[in-house]
Amino acid sequence: MEERNTVSYDELLCIGRQILAELQLITVSTKVAALVRFKQEFLTTSQQRLIFDAFDGERSSQDIAEDTGISLRSVQQLIKDLQDQDLIDFRKRGKAVIPIKSFSKVATYFATKDIENGGQEHG
Q1: pLDDT by residue (tens digit) across 35-55?
Q2: What is the CATH number of the domain that holds 97?
Q3: Please, which contacts does 59-62 make with residues 24 or more away whose CB atoms are closer than 8 Å?
Q4: Which pLDDT value is given to residue 1?
């Protein structure tokens, strides 16, 4: 008779968490490099960097405008520009847009851009 190895749900969950932790560790340097490029290429003003730094997944565009002293229009425009490029996540709370940083999306954007440019980082 064939012997079966069984793994409990808790063991599978633990293995899954270990794999996720390893993947996160492997991708850290890529995400850091992409974030540097993102800030250089997309966040070209101190105002844009201040707005982006305020994206915490909790504050709405209105909250960010009030907290930074930057016009709501400028905050909304940056959010729209980043959404159009699929560089951030967001959620809605009623009519309010809550921007959320997505380092994975930023890294994917630059990896795709590099592939399309034949492996050249800038092009």
Answers
A1: 999 999 999 999 999 999 999
A2: 1.10.10.10
A3: 59/98, 60/93, 60/96, 60/97, 60/98, 61/96, 61/97, 61/99, 62/96
A4: 64
